[in-house]
């Protein structure tokens, strides 16, 4: 990384540094992101501001370009990886300072489905947007989801399925939540290649999310709405 | 020694491949989440019925029930030790049906993706991917597959690893990718990228192309993208029978046999040499496709407008290849600097 036109991050003022970090996230430059996070903290930034203004704002650009078919999975994975390393520095500091949280999501692929690339992407992008994510992995029966909802008390339940044969299981989970009177306690988002909006509605989800970027946008808007409710 | 597929291609303008494997097996009672490959040993008669369905509907090529039969996928069912066996038997059942058909039918050993992301983005190394594919290839070869059929791939790295495994097994091969994200693969590969990639391989495939993805229109647009690269290599089109719809608690594909027949004719007119279906494509679709391919006169190569008017609208405005003066559908964000 010793190109002649290399920018020395420590020589940038705050505003330039933040813009530079957006670029570096876009390019998936892990070490530069770590350096940028440390610099901002040293300069007295609140950890929450570093998270939202530098990292989350940068990942929002990545998400938008992913949604628009300009960036693809490899670039997003690299960006998410860089984001993660920045988050690792911030996490303990955020906990210390009691910073506000975006929200919490429990996510997993449904019973019978072992395809997890899409689910992992959503998890990473949600973390990139500042959400706390509890990943249940693959092949989750309804009991597993229920248990996680009880213990984690998330705002959002995310379910993923790649196969036309496993996607109907999402309805089983939602119907069980209804039976137990728990459905209204959570925002239920569903996704996966063979799904569509019509399917999401038919099974009683709050929304179908076409890709990881849309999942983040949808989650944000639902959480905002939930928080605006008087009794929330 | 020339392989059976090359021989058949040299005598015919087009060949018909098969349709869906999963959709057919689920109709026979395969449970959601159960690996279809287990039926090669547990319910071989159902697999024979699957293969026979394609052959009797007029397919010249059919794929073995081994799509997920690599160690990375089978591991998720604790069956990583059964790779050789499940592939060998899947191919052997195919050999039996093909040889009993009374004509030349090619048994194509299906090889699907590992489901893992390759290094440096993911953890699967090239060496390990080659090893995983090679193990499967040896099983398919042992069972009597004529060619390896590497399909539904989205990453160029994985495509290369599978090609290398075919070389190690000494098998001729075909390879297709799934273009399902704004006309590209999930990993961002365009039709033009794949057309160029295959020509750079030390052991190029007999034929290459597209399978699965999003409906027949998108698949045809991808195919036109291959031809725009000017390659002479035979092209494969295996599109889904429409788009899955949720009705009365079950999933149905909305593509009718008539639509698939229309798609088959358009594919042939575009210059595709191997035409088949993918998810949702049942024997009745294949029969309609075969009848149309045999009865309808060859027309000029269809335009994008012909395709969307006959098969329906595309899922995205662009497919990431040229056409409006630049190489990408939309420009990447302006950089503040480059490193």
From TrEMBL, chain A:
A single cellular component GO annotation: cytosol
Gene Ontology biological-process annotations: homocysteine metabolic process; methylation; tetrahydrofolate metabolic process
Matching InterPro entries: Cbl-bd_cap, Cobalamin-bd, Cobalamin-bd_sf, Met_Synthase/Corrinoid, Meth_synthase_dom
Domain annotation B12-binding: ranges: 102-232
A GO molecular-function annotation: methionine synthase activity
Similarity comment text for this entry: Belongs to the methylamine corrinoid protein family.
Name of this protein: 5-methyltetrahydrofolate--homocysteine methyltransferase
Gene it is expressed from: mtbC
UniProtKB/TrEMBL annotation, chain B:
Cofactor(s) needed for function: Zn(2+)
Molecular-function annotations in GO: methionine synthase activity; zinc ion binding
Keywords on record: Cobalt, Metal-binding, Methyltransferase, S-adenosyl-L-methionine, Transferase, Zinc
Family: Belongs to the vitamin-B12 dependent methionine synthase family.
Species name: Gemmobacter lanyuensis
Matches recorded under PANTHER family: METHIONINE SYNTHASE
Cofactor note: Binds 1 zinc ion per subunit.
Boundaries of every Hcy-binding domain copy: 3-293
UniProt protein name: Methionine synthase
GO cellular component, one term: cytosol
Top-level taxon of the source organism: Bacteria
GO biological process: homocysteine metabolic process; methylation; tetrahydrofolate metabolic process
Biased composition (Basic and acidic residues): 294-308
Residues reported to bind Zn(2+): 212, 278-279
Residue ranges, annotated region (Disordered): 294-339
